[in-house]
């Protein structure tokens, strides 16, 4: 029976891997091993997602923890190589663009094991983003490249990737969203927080360019405090973001902004689905708000997910006080419409991935598996 290793390591990976693991389990003709690298290692940032999304407990937990990019990537490679050498997989499937993604793809490629990359081809064209480096390197190493939008197909072709390796399957993040939206709304998180649907804004910020300096984070805090005088602002803060707010002495400057602990997937989805707007620097949230029809303000100069702007509800803004205030004011005067659902964002991306992987492994079955 063919054997596939799935890799997940950070919070965004879990929402992407859940429908894939489920689709392969329902198909039933391939053996799966789920590896959690431990890149996100506390319960609020990782393990709760296995419970909420019904993902089986990882077969292997590498437990690498937090460190610099180089140290973390190296630790993952060292530990993951042992897993691959021990289990002799026929395919390693990686998702997203975090350090776990590129580290495990590199290990597999060097050992001659085919690599499948889910969410391939996304490009911000900003080499200041570590994720951009991870995306490009992972795609170069991959045998199967599963794309979420047409821009990904175009980018890969422009980089010389043959068409037969590119597979436009849709967005597995949306598979998860559509499967769990009703449960998310049933959490009652909006009522628990005492706000009215559509009346509040949700903020998520974690990128170093936005949160690692007082010069950038200070004006953002000022803008949020100003907005919070008129409408509730709920800010589930990433641990590093909260630490920086405290380090820079900005907690008081936030005024009436409500800082929340990181939420589980279902509670956060329920909160986002009923928001008046979302201010974020997250790639995945740009996609989720597009499907939910919620206006999204992305505090970045670029996006690797342009379909969320051209067809969805997303707008790019500068991470400055005036730009944030102007963007929120413009929503009050001329709210963003619901947008259009991008092609193949229909809840069936994981099933398409299973079909492609099965065909790929059947074609290779006559050749010995390299280890």
Describe the protein's architecture and organization.
The chain is of the alpha/beta class. 47% of the residues lie in helices and 15% in strands. The protein contains 16 helices and 13 strands. The protein has helices at 11-27, 47-53, 69-87, 99-110, 130-141, 150-158, 172-185, 189-192, 208-211, 214-228, 239-247, 265-273, 283-292, 307-310, 321-333, 349-364; strands at residues 3-8, 31-36, 60-61, 91-95, 115-120, 144-147, 166-168, 201-204, 233-236, 258-260, 277-280, 296-299, 314-317. The strands form 2 sheets. The chain has a 7-stranded parallel β-sheet with strand order 3-2-1-4-5-6-7, with helices on both faces. Strand 1 (3-8), helix 1 and strand 2 (31-36) form a beta-alpha-beta unit. Helix 1 packs across helix 7 (172-185) and helix 3 crosses helix 4 (99-110). The radius of gyration is 20 Å and the shape is globular.
Which key features would you list for this structure?
six-stranded parallel sheet, 13 strands, globular
Question: What is the compact description of this entry?
Answer:
The chain is of the alpha/beta class.
Shape, principal axes of CA atoms: globular
DSSP strand tally? 13
Given as residue ranges, the uncertain stretches (5+ residues, pLDDT < 50) are none
Please tell me the overall pLDDT.
93
Tell me about the largest β-sheet: 7 strands, parallel
Strand order of the largest sheet: 3-2-1-4-5-6-7
User: With helices defined by DSSP (H or I, 4 residues minimum), what is the helix count?
Assistant: 16
């Amino acid at each position: 029976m063919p054997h596939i290793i799935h890799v997940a390591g950070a919070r965004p990976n879990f929402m992407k891997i859940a429908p894939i693991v489920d689709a392969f389990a329902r198909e039933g003709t391939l053996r799966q091993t789920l590896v959690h690298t431990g890149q996100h290692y506390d319960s609020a940032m990782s393990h709760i997602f296995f419970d909420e999304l019904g993902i089986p407990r990882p077969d292997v937990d590498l437990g690498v923890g937090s460190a610099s990019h180089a140290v973390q990537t190296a630790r993952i490679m060292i530990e993951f190589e042992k897993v691959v050498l021990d289990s002799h997989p026929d395919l390693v499937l990686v998702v997203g663009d975090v350090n776990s993604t590129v580290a495990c793809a590199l290990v597999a490629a060097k050992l001659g094991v085919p690599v499948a990359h889910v969410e391939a081809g996304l490009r911000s064209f900003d080499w200041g983003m570590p994720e951009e480096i991870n995306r490009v390197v992972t795609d170069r190493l991959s045998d199967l490249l599963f794309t979420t939008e047409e821009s990904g197909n175009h980018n890969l072709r422009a980089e010389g990737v043959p068409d037969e390796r590119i597979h436009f399957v849709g967005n597995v993040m949306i598979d998860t969203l559509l499967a769990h939206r009703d449960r998310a709304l049933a959490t009652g998180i909006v009522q628990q927080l005492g706000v009215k649907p559509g009346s509040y804004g949700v903020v998520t910020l974690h990128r170093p360019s936005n949160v690692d300096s007082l010069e950038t984070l200070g004006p953002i805090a000022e803008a949020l405090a100003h907005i919070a005088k008129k409408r509730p602002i709920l800010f589930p803060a990433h641990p590093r973001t909260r630490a920086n707010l405290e380090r820079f002495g900005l907690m008081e400057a936030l005024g009436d902004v409500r800082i929340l602990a990181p939420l589980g997937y279902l509670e956060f989805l329920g909160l986002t689905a009923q928001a008046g707007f979302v201010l974020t620097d997250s790639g995945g949230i740009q996609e989720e708000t597009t499907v939910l029809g919620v206006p999204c303000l992305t505090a970045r100069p670029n996006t690797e997910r342009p379909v969320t702007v051209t067809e969805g509800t997303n707008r790019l803004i500068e991470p400055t006080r005036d730009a944030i205030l102007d963007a929120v004011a413009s929503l009050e005067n001329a709210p963003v419409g619901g947008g259009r659902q991008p092609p193949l964002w229909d809840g069936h991306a994981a099933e398409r991935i299973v079909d492609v992987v099965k065909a790929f492994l059947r074609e290779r079955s006559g050749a010995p598996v390299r280890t």
